[in-house]
Amino acid sequence: MPSTLSCVPSDINHFAVVEGHGVKGLSDLGLESLPEQYIQPPEERITTSAIIADDSIPVIDLSDWDRVDDKICEAAEKWGFFQIVNHGVPLEVLEEVKAATYRFFRQPAAEKNKHSKENSPSHNVRYGTSFTPQAEKALEWKDYLSLFYVSDEEAAALWPSACRDEALTFMRNCDAVIRRLLQSLMKGLNVTEIDGTKESLLMGSKRINMNYYPKCPSPELTVGVGRHSDVSTLTILLQDQIGGLYVRKLDSDTWVHVPPINGAIVINIGDALQIMSNGRYKSIEHRVIANGSNNRISVPIFVNPRPNDIIGPLSEVLESGEKAVYKNVLYSDYVKHFFRKAHDGKATVDFAKMTN
Question: Tell me, which fold does domain 49-352 have in CATH?
Answer without folding.
Answer: Jelly Rolls (2.60.120)
